[in-house]
Amino acid sequence: MATDFKSIPVIDVAPLFAKCDDPKMVQDPGVREVVKQLDQACREAGFFYAIYWRILEGHILMLVSRYALDMNVRYGCLKKHKRLNQNRGYQRIGENITKGVPDMDEAIDCYKELKQGMYGALGKPMEGCNQWPHYPPNFKELMEKYISLCTEVSRKIMRGIALALGGSPDEFEGERGGDAFWVMRLIGYPGASTANGKCTSENDIGCGAHTDYGLLTLVNQDENITALQVRNQAGEWISAPPIPGTFVCNIGDMLKILSNGLYESTLHRVINKSPTYRVCVAFFYEPNYDAAVEPLEVCVRKSSGIRKFENAVYGEHLVSKVQTNFVT
């Protein structure tokens, strides 16, 4: 469970990444140190910064995303349809709902594409193709490259988290996450509005307090704008300012279940107090779409043999959340 943390820990994951696919990785002192830090971060905050040099590629994508969002506003392309299975594409400001309140953000939403009939009735609500922005012309290629990068980064971090929980490195692969579903959101937050010369950003919440759905989230933040806030156990909102060369990472609901509550999915929100338009690129690494998620036995043993969560099918969980998150 989250503690009264006052800052988000920063972890250099390079030793883990260097040995990630080595059968003897757990014996490496550098890996053991990263695993120790991951365990502490997931227990105490549910959030951490991961230092990773290839994040620079993400900054290029963020600049392109800003342009793509602007083009969608100007020309109205990629407009979403209201049916759930066509929720891919551009989302206007106020269309996303968090706990019944419209969020002051806009986004381009992309999901791993599911072929028709791939998961039967379970998969039908999420079947469909992504609507890629037409501007710039190479946006789809940039996006696919970045998705591949984030998928690999997430897989490697999850191997470290598996070790932190006392399991084998591949606990979150195979039937649980060997064919991981993913969601990508390119999100734009308008600058803070003003009245009588005073900032009124507290009334313009970019994204309301929520937890994420899956295993692990990687967020690439706009430089020089602090807007992401994480709530500690005391109810205080702790800022997560952008740190160059890092992803902001947080664990989701499915990892909370798999860890049997040893790790908590922490509430967070976004309030852009800057007058400048803010962009972030959020990548959500999820279990297999049809995965039956249940507490790991090693985590149940660490909890005095008490199983705290019932099984959950990831696809059902995702659909139930998406259905309540959009204006219909």
Automatic annotation (TrEMBL):
**Keyword Oxidoreductase part of the UniProt annotation:** yes
Q: Which residues cross the membrane?
A: none
UniProt entry keywords in alphabetical sequence: Iron, Metal-binding, Oxidoreductase
Kindly indicate whether the keyword S-adenosyl-L-methionine belongs to this entry: no
- Single GO molecular function: metal ion binding
Domain Fe2OG dioxygenase span(s) in chain numbering = 179-287
Q: Which domain of life is it from?
A: Eukaryota
Family annotation (SUPFAM superfamilies): Clavaminate synthase-like (SSF51197)
Q: Identify the InterPro entries for this entry.
A: DIOX_N, IPNS-like_FE2OG_OXY, IPNS-like_sf, Iron_ascorbate_oxido_reductase, Oxoglu/Fe-dep_dioxygenase_dom
Q: Which family does it belong to?
A: Belongs to the iron/ascorbate-dependent oxidoreductase family.
Q: What is this protein called?
A: Fe2OG dioxygenase domain-containing protein
